[in-house]
Amino acid sequence: MKRALFTLLLVPLFLVGCGQNPTPAPEKTTFTIVWKNYDGATIETKYVEEGVTPICSTTPVRAEDEQFTYTFKGWDPTVTPATKDMTYVATYESIPKTKTFTIRWLNYDNSVLATSVVEENNLPVYPSPIDPTRPSDDKFIYTFIGWSPEIYNANKNQDYVATYKAEAIVPSSDVLTAITCNVTDGHDYKDVNYTGDSGAKYTIRAIKAENNELQLNYKNTTMPGIIINSDKDIKKIEVDWGYQSEPTPYYVPNYIMDIYGSNTMYTSVEDLYGSGKGTLLGSIIRNDDQTEYTLSGSFKYVGLLSREGKLLLKSITVYF
């Protein structure tokens, strides 16, 4: 009986033990991980299980400013497996920006020739292989010689102005009048020596007539005339005829200026009345309405004479 009873008692106990539910696994612990930028702005928030190393899915960026550009460097503090709620702040490497300056290249009239952007401490260079130019005027031609101020390593915005050397233009013509050549009035033919703007030397044996005109008479004892000695070839003689009265019985009706050329320098007006006058090149005849004569050949020494009549001239222009 005891044995049987013992058996019966065990069976219920066994049945009761086999009918119980299994024990549930413990819940995993998670932590809140916040990723922030340098300025405190939240980049993202994640929930990470304990022991797992958190990862930010976005690479932080920081905009450049006037002095620096920025490169993401890492997180502060250093990222470690999660053991608690944590905030990480992005850190950056500051890279100094290279300063640049605006350089303007101006011509003599302040017009802008070019503009350059130059890094600090670098020497600006005019960005054209062709030097600036300045057009010539009536008196000068201009040659570029450099910049003002003198070019220096860039440390600020700067304007440089082209500078030029002015070289006087030697006139290509001389204008002779009784006034400009200081010819005296009266009846005495006296030599007047005159140097033209071209550098040519003139000896003028004439008088100043009415209306301040040059007067050259046909051959007389005073031997009037004009000699020209130049270091350049004389190309043309041009006259502006003055007032001519009707010829008297003592004058022939034509008014003619003869032009002589010589290969040797004239020494005096008298040369025009002897063997030293040179070659008769041509003439200017008023009655034929002629006002100029163009020389052919190369002549640096030229003489002007009245062939017939009293010549009255407002001006004589000599071209080289």
Task: Give a structural overview.
The protein is mainly β. Strand 11 and strand 12 form a beta hairpin. Residues 1-18 and 248-252 have low confidence and may be disordered. The protein has one helix at residues 2-18, and strands spanning 30-36, 42-49, 68-76, 86-96, 100-106, 112-119, 140-148, 158-168, 173-176, 190-195, 201-208, 214-216, 225-229, 236-241, 256-262, 279-285, 292-294, 301-308, 311-319. It folds into three domains: 30-96, Immunoglobulin-like (Sandwich), CATH 2.60.40.4270; 100-168, Listeria-Bacteroides repeat domain (Immunoglobulin-like, Sandwich); 173-319, Jelly Rolls. It is 5% helix and 42% strand. The chain is built from one helix and 19 strands.
The main β sheet shows up as: 11 strands, antiparallel
Q: Please, what is the average pLDDT? A: 88
Structural class: mainly beta
Low-confidence stretches: 1-18, 248-252
The Rg value, from CA coordinates, equals 54 Å
Query: Per DSSP, what share of the residues sits in E-state strands of 2 or more residues?
Result: 35-45%
What is CATH's topology name of the largest domain?
Jelly Rolls
The CATH architecture of the largest domain comes to: Sandwich
Percent of residues in helical segments?
A: under 10%
What is the number of beta strands? 19
Give the number of domains.
3
Termini Cα gap: 162 Å
| Envelope shape | rod-shaped
CATH class of the largest domain: Mainly Beta
Order of helices and strands: HEEEEEEEEEEEEEEEEEEE
The number of helices is 1
